[in-house]
Amino acid sequence: MMKSLSRLFLTALLSVLLMLTACTPAATETPTETPLPPPTETPVPPTETPTATPTETPTPTETPTETPTATNTPTETPDLAATAAFESTQAAEEAIAIVAEQLEKVNLTTDNGALAWVEAGPITINLRGPGGSYEPIDDGIVYSTYVLHSNVTWESTSGFSGCGVIFHSEDNLSEGQQYQFFTIRLSGLPAWDVELWRYGRWQSTTTGEVKVNSAINQENGAVNEYLLVVQDGIMAIYVNGTRLSNVIISTRNEGRIAFYGSQDSGDTSCVFEDNWIWTLGE
Fold first, then answer.
1. 209-236 per-position pLDDT tens digit
2. What is the spatial distance between Cα 157 and Cα 201, in angstroms, rounded to a whole number?
3. Fewer Cβ atoms within 10 Å of its own Cβ: the N or the C terminal residue of the chain?
């Protein structure tokens, strides 16, 4: 019996030992590092030390500076109306100074009247063959008392030709009643007259006859200065500073004015320059 108990005890002890053995984890083997082989140096073949090549130091260049673009300084917009008025006033003052000098020659002044018309010219009338032609002063003024000035150059191949002024004309300068003052190259004579015309035809010679005066330069291409003073029914006629006559003009006391040229044949030109009219007070 004791043997049986001893066997049972041994058997039980073995079972416990087996169970303990089964429950205890197996010991793990600690890994060991595999040592790396020592690095081997790759032999580098010796290289020659490069010799430094000298390089030229670059010459410094001037950095171009940008030239500033010129800008126009804005100017004020001119007052065109004011400028025109100034120029007109200045021209009028110069013209009046010239007029004053001429009026003084005939005992008149610019204190009486006004500058009604001025045209430096030239106003040219060219004629070919027999006949006449005129250039009106189209300023819309009917003149009665005034002073008219013009420097007249005439050239002609004709034996009878002339240049002059139509004055106190009706509105129709071709057919209307009018006076004509005329300087004439008549066979080389320095002639002049005043005539009354109507319907394009001569009516009468206001001066009574054609007159001759050496003050008129009748040479071809010559210049004659006209100064006609019309007031109180009389026209005082001056040519080249000489008074030719006082002519009574009673049929008409006012009207239009035009420059005029006439001939009987050939070619004639009348050129009117430095033209002006000064109206006189009544």
1. 999 999 999 898 999 999 999 999 999 9
2. 24
3. N
